[in-house]
Amino acid sequence: MADLKRLSDEELMFRFQKGDDSAYNEIVERYKNKLLNHIFYYMKDREWAEDIVQDTFVRVYLNKDKYKEIAKVSTWIYTIAINLAKTALSRNGKMNAFSITGKDGENDYEIKDKHTTTDGDVLKNELSDVIMSSIDELEEKFREIVMLRDVDEMSYEEIAALLKIPTGTVKSRLNRARLNLRDALSEYIR
């Protein structure tokens, strides 16, 4: 049996469709933290985001035969999760809710250093807060692109497929978002 970690997402999905549940488990391992982090941006509620991610993987499991290799597995999974999140938010009137945490999604449980805080640490934390606030202030279409590209590290093509927009639109929105961020952060940039 091949080492599952070496297989592409699409190879894993093919094995899963043939009945290999260990391939499904590997897909979940690859995407659960990235997906939780991404959905948490929308939800601003960790438990709610965890529920969405869990529901996403239940749907992946139940609908495995609906996946066709027309799209990447990652695009298919993100589409399911984002649709679930948007549906949940629109039901609760919180569609504009948005937040950002660290890349690993675990900053809620950060352990503080017992040593005294240096001026550098204070400035770093202040800049981090300003960056997060600036991202939060972007229009949703720009904020989503920044998150998918710079936080989730998706390719332009993956983002285009996920959002159903041309690759050129992804690039122009990302450029516009970065210019807006640069302007918002100009007093912090030397």
- What portion of residues belong to β-strands? under 5%
How many distinct helices? 8
Briefly, what CATH class of the largest domain?
Mainly Alpha
CATH-level-2 architecture of the largest domain: Orthogonal Bundle
List strands and helices in order, with pairings.
Layout: H1 9-17, H2 21-43, H3 46-62, H4 73-91, H5 119-137, H6 140-151, H7 156-163, H8 167-184
Helix pairs in contact: 1-2, 2-3, 2-4, 3-4, 4-7, 6-8, 7-8
Describe the model.
With 190 residues, this protein is mainly α. It has two domains: 104 residues, RNA polymerase sigma factor, region 2, helix turn helix motif (Rna Polymerase Sigma Factor, Chain: A), CATH 1.10.1740; 73 residues, Orthogonal Bundle (Arc Repressor Mutant, subunit A), CATH 1.10.10.10. It has eight helices and no strands. Helix 4 crosses helix 7 and helix 6 crosses helix 8. It is globular, with a radius of gyration of 18 Å. The protein starts with 8 loop residues before the first helix and ends in a 6-residue tail after the last helix.
Task: Tell me briefly what this model is.
With 190 residues, the protein is mainly alpha-helical. It is built from eight helices and no strands.
